[in-house]
Amino acid sequence: MHSVSSRACEKNSLDGVHSPDRLKVLNPCAAFQGRVTQAPVKNPDGDVSFEVEPDPGYRRMLNAKNRGEGGLHIEIVRRDQPGCTRGQPVHAGDVPGLGTCSGRDVATPALGAHVRIIGPWVLDRNNRWYEIHPVWSIGPAGCRVPRLIGRTVPQARKAIARQLCSVGSVRRRSSRARLEGRVVGQHPREGSLLGAHATIDLTIGRGPGK
Questions:
Q1: Neighbouring C-alpha atoms within 13 Å toward the C-beta of 168
Q2: How far is CA 1 from CA 30, 45, 59, 81, in A?
Q3: For residue 182, what is the DSSP state?
C-alpha cells in the first residue's frame, strides 16, 4: 500500500462523493501510478471515471474484479473538476449532497497518459473493486524510491529502473562479510516520491577491513 504525506490530502476522505456509505476507506491518502487504459467517461452524478493499468509495484492495489476491468477504477468528483468555482455549491442534475467546489481543477488525463494519482484508496462495496475516489491530484508519473538495503547491485539497479528512477552516485564502505557486494545505504529513503528519473545514491558493502 502506497501511503503518502501530501498537501493534496484532505481530512475528510469522501468529501463530494455521491452515496459515500458504499465506499470503505482502505487508505485515506494513497499514491497510485500507471497508464490510462480507458477513455474518461462522464457519469450522471457529475463524476469523471476511467481505468488505469498499474506500473510494477502498484499491482497489489488491484483485486480480481479490477484486473477483469483493465485496471484501478479512478473517479474525479464534480467538486474537484475544472470550472467548479471554489466555495460554490456543487450541482450535478438532481444528485444531492455533493458539497462545495474545492477549486482543485483536477484535469482529466488523456487515454494512454502515464500518470501519478493521489487520493483515498477505497473499496466500492457495490462493484466489488478498488478505486481511488475521489482524486485529489493527477500529475506525470514519477519515481517512487524502492527498498534497496540488502540487495545485490544488479537487483538494486533492476528495482530502481522498474520504479522510473535512475542510479546516482555509487560508493563503497566497509561492511560485514555477508553484506559484501550488497546495498548497505541509500538516499533518498524508501518510499520517497520524486520526479521521473530522479537519482538514487547507493552505498555498497565491500566486506570487513577493505
A1: 13
A2: 7, 29, 10, 26
A3: B
- The enclosing H or E element of 66 equals helix 64-69
Q: How far is CA 76 from CA 51, 81, 178, in A?
A: 12, 7, 49
By mean pLDDT, which of 18-22, 48-52, 181-185 is the weakest? 18-22
Given a cut of 80, is residue 128 above it in pLDDT? yes
Q: Which long-range contacts (CB under 8 A, 24 or more apart) does 184-188 make?
A: 184/149, 185/149, 186/145, 186/148, 186/149, 188/145
pLDDT digits (tens, 9 = 90+) for 101-124: 999 999 999 999 999 999 999 999
- Determine the Cα–Cα distance for residues 45 and 82; give it in Å rounded to an integer: 16
Express each pLDDT in 148-186 by its tens digit: 999 999 999 999 988 888 999 999 999 999 999 999 999
Query: Hey, what domains does the chain have and what are their CATH numbers?
Result: 20-140 (2.40.50.140), 143-205 (3.30.10.20)
